[in-house]
Design a protein that fits this description.
It is globular, with a radius of gyration of 20 Å. Helices cover 26% and strands 27% of the residues. The chain folds into two domains: 128 residues, Aminotransferase class 4, branched-chain amino acid transferase, N-terminal domain (D-amino Acid Aminotransferase, Chain A, domain 1, 2-Layer Sandwich); 160 residues, Alpha-Beta Barrel (D-amino Acid Aminotransferase, Chain A, domain 2), CATH 3.20.10.10. It is of the alpha+beta class and 304 residues long. Helix 6 crosses helix 7. It has seven helices and 15 strands. The strands form two sheets. Strands 7, 8, 9, 10, 11, 12, 13, 14 and 15 form a nine-stranded mixed β-sheet that branches. Strands 2-1-6-5-3-4 form a six-stranded antiparallel β-sheet. Bound molecules: N-(5'-phosphopyridoxyl)-D-alanine (PDD). N-(5'-phosphopyridoxyl)-D-alanine binds next to helix 6 and strand 13.
Length: 304
């Protein structure tokens, strides 16, 4: 039996057929079968990508780091001068209700808030009622092969906008980056700034081990403050692994490992970038150690 993030688990996993008709979505106050859940064509999310989102992992009915996720959602909303449609505790209760209406034990909840419906005009002419949409899917698990061999990636010059700290639903650049990764037969594209520093992936944060130190780009407008990034850094610090939040490059001397983190993957070693081998080409000792510790924490949380 394999844990959603790819580790061994003791708890029994509920088996369900996944059939779209049986999944339930939340749309603006109603719980509906997924294929009946609809949004207005003049929703500003559809017309301008005028909205923000979160993806939250749920392990056996418990939502991982829900408070930091809702705090980040609030940050994203504030940054675009939009109000949360409900206070955080009401959102938490809706998330819980939606989870219970869906057939997964380990799940990821997608929640999207847009500014609302109005005749198309770039300017926000009047306060609007925000739209809230949520869906639930099974939390994916990396394959045994991926865990044994590590993931792979390419690098691309960053052509996204200048506020990547906002979890915006405007994800066209990320879609293009992921497609480019798929075209190269790899898992992720890492964005590079003009000085070839690795910023983050299309849907991941990225780290290196350089001379025994865990290095990752600092929190600024060029990256999303990942919830798992935070867990990786906390885990490393608790193990007395030195941590530096600073710009870094792949050609730095003594770079021995790379890894990436996200809500959907926890932490994955990355062993090939731009077709070059990182370290020995297999998951390195620090990445393996951190991943093991994180899976232990997640398992403890699941069983708490
Ligand atoms: N993406 N950076 C970017 C650009 C992301 O889109 C994500 C997450 C992360 C990692 O953040 P977290 O640890 O909070 O998941 C970093 C989600 C999973 C997505 O778009 O599906």
């Amino acid at each position: 039996m394999v844990h959603a993030f790819g580790g061994a688990i003791t708890a029994k996993r509920i088996q369900h057929r996944v059939n779209n008709k049986r999944l339930t979505a939340y749309v603006n106050g109603s719980f509906l079968p997924l294929d009946e859940a609809k949004i207005h064509i003049e929703d500003r999310g559809f017309q301008f990508a005028d909205g923000v989102y979160e993806v939250i992992a749920c392990l056996g009915g418990k939502f991982l780091d829900i408070k930091p996720h809702l705090k980040r959602l609030e940050h994203s909303c504030q940054a675009i001068q939009m109000k949360l449609p409900y206070p955080a505790d009401r959102l938490e209760s809706l998330i819980q209700q939606l989870y219970q209406k869906n057939p997964f034990e380990d799940a990821m909840i997608y929640m999207q808030i847009t500014r609302g419906v109005a005749p198309r005009s770039h300017t926000i002419n009047a306060p609007m009622k925000p739209s809230l949409v949520m869906t639930v899917r099974e939390l994916p698990a990396p394959s045994e092969e991926k865990l044994a061999d590590g993931a792979s990636a390419i690098t691309i010059r960053d052509f996204r906008w200048g506020r990547c700290d906002i979890k915006s639903i405007a994800l066209l650049a990320s879609v293009m980056g992921k497609q480019e990764a798929a075209r190269h037969g790899v898992d992720e594209s890492f964005w590079l700034d003009d000085d070839h520093h690795l910023l983050e992936g299309c849907a991941t944060n990225v780290f290196a081990i350089i001379d025994g130190t865990l290095v990752t780009h600092p929190l600024d407008h060029q990256i999303l403050g990942g919830i798992m990034r935070d867990m990786v850094l906390r885990t490393a610090r608790s193990e007395n692994i030195p941590v530096q939040e600073r710009p870094w490059r792949l050609d730095e001397e003594h770079l021995s490992e790379c890894m990436m983190s996200s809500t959907t993957n926890a932490l994955l070693p990355v062993c090939h970038i731009d077709q070059k081998t990182i370290g020995h080409g297999k998951p390195g000792p620090v990445a393996k150690h951190l991943r093991t510790l994180m899976l232990k924490k997640l398992e403890a949380f699941r069983n708490s």
